[in-house]
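tokens incoming
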């Protein structure tokens, strides 16, 4: 609901602030008083194109502020996605118009004009100036039909939307399976080759170091054998015999010189050590022959490990790690191929369900449309469309959205002999407003947009039809906030809240002002509109009688 309007320095408006209430809010005033400026200021706040010529003469900027009280789920979700703060159910839209660049804000956050229009379309519908007219957008016609039959069609539409969500979810899953199956097969074959290559190698952590040590040993056995042979040659039998003779000589002189005992013992030890060394050298010489076959085996194994290191990592650990990754990826690709077929089959099933649900929704809408058309014709006839024809055209397509697969458009003919045409071809703003009024009278109970503004609603009507228009507006105002700019007595008489717009001259400046009227002032304004402009006693009594008569009809309707 629009709770407050504040306008500064816009055209003839110097500073106006108005509080609106629920129900039927009527704005009246003499021609040229500034009613269109007031409506234009609301349009500006809702994102329409700003003309700097609208800035009041002598001022640098114009300012418009709208305050809404609203807490609809769609609005809350939209603001959340835009990161606009919204906690207490109050929404404040401001628009500044300057020579260089204007500023648009929602709850203090600067936004673009497009964002402003998107958000405001959830709050308010303005009719009569071909701006913010959701009805002219044929994408909204299905919403009108669905709102009209919400109780009867609700479960069918919910089933469709569930089917649509499931279908879209499965479509998203399919994106993960968009790769060429042949390419996947080739990748799997290559992975399996790499896995087999590593498996066949039977890599063991730390193996290479041991192999290199063994290879080095075998590779140098010839040098080792030569060295051992030289040692053996030096440690000849003659050497051993000489040491043995020295031992005997020492033992012979020991009785004459007791100190030779230590020398004798040392020579005995030397003889034992030498004997052990000679034996060890001879044993080593036996094993010192190079094993050429083993050397070839070691060389081939070391080359294989080096090849795998270059291909899969710089160490045995990296080779084994790559092996595990290949196993995991190959398993995933194997499952991918299996799952791909499963998901595509599931998509076909969800598509079948979607098509069936769309067909049921189409049938339900077609049934609703027949009833809607009949009631629309009656409603339009009450609004002075005497020779009207109205038809809801529903075409089932294969293009699916969250709202179904139907293209729905309203067609109308307002004169005998004229063909049915889309609503967008209706030229008159007054006609468009009354058509919307007829629709709102049928869908008021379920329409999600809370605030409706009607301008030019009284164009081309009078008498009995004017009374019917007034009653319909009052009926809509039971469920919505309705703001109407009008000079028609029958409509003004139904006001729950009445405002008068006037143009006044102060010194050398002209100012448009607005004031909320009390009950007696409202009757005086009604008398002025009903007569010649002068509020006579008779005109005042006639105004009271008109108001009472329409209120009685409202209670009886």
């Amino acid at each position: 609901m629009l709770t407050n309007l504040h306008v500064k320095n816009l055209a003839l408006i110097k500073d106006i602030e108005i509080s609106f209430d629920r129900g039927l809010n009527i704005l009246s005033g003499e021609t040229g008083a500034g009613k269109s400026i007031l409506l234009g200021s609301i349009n500006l706040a809702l994102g329409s194109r700003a003309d700097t010529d609208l800035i009041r003469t002598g001022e640098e900027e114009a300012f418009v502020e709208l305050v809404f009280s609203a807490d609809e789920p769609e609005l809350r979700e939209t603001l959340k996605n835009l990161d606009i703060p919204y906690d207490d159910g109050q929404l404040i839209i401001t628009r500044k118009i300057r020579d260089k660049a204007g500023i648009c804000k929602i709850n203090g956050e600067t936004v673009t004009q497009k964002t402003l229009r998107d958000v405001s379309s959830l709050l308010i519908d303005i009719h009569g100036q071909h701006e913010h007219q959701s009805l002219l957008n044929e994408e909204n016609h299905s919403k009108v039909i669905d709102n009209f039959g919400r109780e009867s069609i609700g479960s069918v539409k919910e089933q469709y939307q569930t089917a649509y969500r499931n279908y879209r979810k499965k479509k998203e899953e399919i994106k993960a399976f968009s790769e060429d199956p042949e390419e996947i097969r080739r990748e799997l074959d290559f992975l399996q080759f790499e896995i087999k290559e590593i498996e066949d190698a039977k890599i063991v952590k730390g193996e290479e170091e041991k192999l290199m040590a063994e290879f080095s040993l075998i590779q140098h056995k010839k040098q080792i054998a030569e060295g051992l042979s030289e040692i053996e040659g030096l440690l000849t039998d003659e050497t051993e015999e000489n040491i043995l003779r020295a031992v005997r000589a020492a033992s012979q002189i020991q009785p004459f010189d007791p100190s030779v005992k230590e020398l004798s013992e040392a020579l005995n030890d030397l003889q034992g050590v030498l004997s052990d060394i000679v034996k060890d050298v001879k044993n080593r010489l036996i094993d010192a022959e190079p094993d050429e076959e083993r050397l070839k085996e070691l060389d081939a194994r070391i080359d294989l490990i080096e090849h795998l290191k270059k291909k899969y990592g710089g160490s045995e650990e990296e080779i084994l790690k790559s092996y595990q990754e290949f196993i995991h990826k190959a398993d995933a690709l194997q499952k991918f191929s299996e799952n791909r077929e499963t998901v595509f089959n599931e998509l076909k099933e969800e598509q079948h369900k979607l098509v069936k649900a769309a067909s049921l929704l189409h049938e339900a809408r077609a049934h609703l449309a027949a009833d809607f058309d009949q009631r629309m014709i009656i409603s339009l006839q009450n609004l002075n469309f005497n020779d009207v024809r109205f038809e809801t055209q529903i075409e089932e397509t294969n293009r699916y959205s969250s709202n179904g697969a139907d293209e729905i458009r309203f067609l109308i003919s307002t004169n005998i002999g004229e063909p049915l045409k889309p609503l967008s071809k209706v030229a008159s703003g007054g006609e468009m407003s009354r058509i919307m009024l007829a629709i709102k009278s049928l869908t008021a109970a379920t329409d999600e947009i809370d605030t409706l503004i009607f301008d030019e609603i009284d164009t081309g009507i009078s008498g009995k039809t004017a009374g019917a228009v007034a009653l319909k507006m009052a009926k809509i105002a039971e469920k919505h906030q309705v703001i109407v700019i009008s000079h028609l007595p029958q409509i003004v008489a139904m006001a729950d809240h009445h405002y008068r717009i006037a143009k006044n001259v102060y010194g050398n400046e002209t100012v448009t002002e607005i004031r909320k009227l009390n009950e007696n002032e409202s009757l005086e304004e009604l008398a002025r509109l009903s007569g010649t402009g002068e509020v006579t006693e008779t005109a005042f009594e006639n105004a009271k009688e008109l108001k009472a008569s329409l209120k009685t009809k409202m209670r009886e309707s």
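note: The chain is about 55% helix and 20% strand.
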